[in-house]
Amino acid sequence: MVPDHDLAEDADDAISETPLETRHTAKMAKKKAARDRMMAQKSGEKGLIIVHTGAGKGKSSSAFGMIMRCVAHGFPCAVVQFIKGGWDTGERRLLTGQFSELCQFYAMGEGFTWETQDRARDIAAAKAGWEKAKQLISDPRLRMVVLDEINIALRYDYLDIGEVVDFLKNSKPPLTHVVLTGRNAKQELIDLADLVTEMTLVKHPFRSGIKAQPGVEF
Asked: Which of 111, 166, 189, 202, by CA, is between 20 and 30 Å from 134?
């Protein structure tokens, strides 16, 4: 006579091997084999030009996430902020404090354009930021340089898009990653980039009367 516990185990095995589970296992095995073949062909490395744009939240947040990855790996990196220079942000506190030996941080902007209300001053600040950016990007020791909100400066023609594209194309060291954030990225920059992500706005609390809050926006 077969013990009851053996019958129970046989029943469990029968349940676990249903046609649905069998099809799922076969499907995942096929997907893994295809993925492994694809990954076997990907062996190159290069410094990427990465653009985060769009009306949705998360452009700078994503860029700073990559900076924190660099820091965690011990890679020297740098940030140039073109607009949010006066903000006491969480990322600025962290990177200029605990991680200042690995990450250089330059807040070159003076606030949003509607706050300064001075085009000549905005242009001067943007150009100073770009000069610092070129200096940092040219340093092959830096693994990544984030140009936060540079797309805004380019949108208002505070900087010449042709000059920026030419420098990134011809003067960036081969293994340096450059991340450019901000709404309304110029098409020339999108065409040049290796990776472009557009953040899409679905809902935002600001439209419901909620102000920007520490830990979420800054």
From this structure: 111
183 plus 77 within the same structural domain = yes
Other C-beta atoms closer than 10 Å to the C-beta of 80 total 27
Show the domain range for 34: 4-40
Element (DSSP H or E) covering residue 104:
strand 103-107
Would residue 216 count as lying in a domain? no
Number of domains forming the structure of the chain: 2
Residues 33 and 93 in one domain: no
**Degrees, nearest 5: CA angle 83-86-90:** 95
pLDDT per residue as tens digits for the range 28-87: 788 887 777 776 776 678 999 999 999 999 999 999 999 999 999 999 999 999 987 667
> pTM of this prediction?
0.80
Low-confidence ranges of the chain (pLDDT < 70): 1-17, 39, 42-43, 85-86, 110-117
